[in-house]
Design a protein that fits this description.
- By secondary structure, the protein is an alpha/beta fold.
- It has 12 helices and 11 strands.
- It has a single domain, classed as NADP-dependent oxidoreductase domain (TIM Barrel).
- The strands form 2 sheets. It has an 8-stranded parallel β-sheet. It has a 3-stranded antiparallel β-sheet with strand order 1-2-3, with no helix packed on it.
- Helix 3 packs parallel to helix 4 and helix 9 crosses helix 10.
- Bound molecules: NADP nicotinamide-adenine-dinucleotide phosphate (NAP).
- NADP nicotinamide-adenine-dinucleotide phosphate binds next to helix 8 and helix 11.
Length: about 300
């Protein structure tokens, strides 16, 4: 694995620095200013993954977006400077994400390399993973998949992961990850695979903070990304109206959603808020004009009540 990371790092040292989703990833110890795996760069708004690629630290979730809304939302994200999109086989909108990406590339002159698309295999696909990966590539139709996750633990998950590893070798998938894997599941899973996941995507919001799980994942050189950052579609009202969060939002002249997303970023957690509303999409990208104080971070930490908003 170390050899694999080193060669990926060396290969990418040939690329130029910038806002590209795949900027230079030279992690040489004699170049202390070079990016470190897992460390957020708030200037370029990216993080270096253990795969040697960089990924934007904020983007768009597309769960529950129908075809047209999804195409428009992806375009709106990219028009407003966002570059990271999360989809899944289970969302039935991989075609729409691909269409949105292609249209935005053309409309706004954004190169494919600057855009980062994550999709996922669902457990009912794990027994025939090659067919499932081919289907995802075909539906997205954007050349390659930046990152593929296993959506949940399930039978044949190791087999499915090994198939994804083969597609990484072929260059059709660039990085791998997991979703809904926690400490015990990771301890069992990691020794069985060849490529360490670059990312784990789990439910995280102020009422469910995963204060034990997040450091465990990060200490293993794996980036954490959160789903349901705003509490989940249909469950946002209480969180966005929370008095502690609202007071912090008022103090900074921003919205509750921006406070929550900024809190995630300051914890080193990548955000993919879901939205079909262009105004919200724009607002959710506007997280760099203010900073939460340690007192404000601690105040939000006290809101944790272990309240999961979904079963997995
Ligand atoms: N791996 C997994 O198992 C898993 C599970 C669930 C979700 N996910 C991923 O995580 C993403 C995020 O989760 P989610 O979309 O379900 O929930 P979410 O991001 O917590 O919340 C989405 C809801 O927030 C609203 N919203 C977004 N921005 C807002 C803003 N600035 N102000 C007020 N309301 C705002 C949206 O409404 P509007 O549409 O009106 O903006 C929508 O109703 C998903 O889209 C999906 O990509 C992964």
């Amino acid at each position: 694995m170390k050899k694999r990371l080193l060669s990926a790092v060396m290969a990418f040292s040939m690329l130029s620095l910038g806002l590209s989703a795949h900027a230079e990833a030279s992690a040489s110890p004699d170049n202390p200013s070079s990016p470190q795996v897992g460390m957020f760069d708030f200037d370029s708004r990216t993080v270096l993954l253990n795969s040697g690629y960089t990924m934007p630290i904020l983007g768009l979730g597309t769960y529950a977006l129908d075809h047209d809304t999804c195409v428009n939302s992806v375009m709106s994200l990219i028009e407003n400077g966002g570059r990271l999109i999360d989809t899944a086989y289970m969302y039935h909108n991989e075609e729409a994400v691909g269409e949105g990406v292609r249209k935005a590339m053309e409309a706004y002159g954004v190169p494919r390399e600057d855009i980062y698309v994550i999709t996922k295999l669902y457990p009912n696909q794990f027994s025939s993973p090659e067919a499932a990966i081919e289907m995802a590539l075909e539906k997205l139709d954007i050349g390659y998949i930046d990152m593929m996750l296993l959506h949940h633990p399930g039978s044949n998950d190791v087999k499915a992961y090994h198939a994804m590893e083969k597609y990484v070798e072929q260059g059709k998938i660039r990085s791998l990850g997991l979703s809904n894997w926690y400490v015990e599941e990771l301890k069992t899973f990691l020794p069985q695979v060849n490529i360490t996941p670059a990312l784990v995507q789990n439910e995280i919001h102020p009422y469910y903070q995963e204060q034990d799980v997040v450091p465990f994942i990060q200490e293993n050189g794996i980036v954490v990304q959160c789903w349901y950052p705003l509490g989940g579609r249909g469950y946002t009202a209480e969180l966005l109206g929370d008095p502690v969060i609202s007071a912090i939002a008022d103090a900074h002249g921003v919205s509750s959603a921006q406070v929550i997303l900024r809190w995630d970023l300051q914890r080193g957690i990548v955000v993919i808020p879901g939205s079909g509303n262009p105004e919200h999409i724009k607002e959710n990208l506007d997280l760099f004009g203010f900073e939460l104080t340690e007192t404000e971070m601690s105040a939000i930490a006290t809101l944790d009540r272990g309240e999961k908003h979904d079963w997995y």
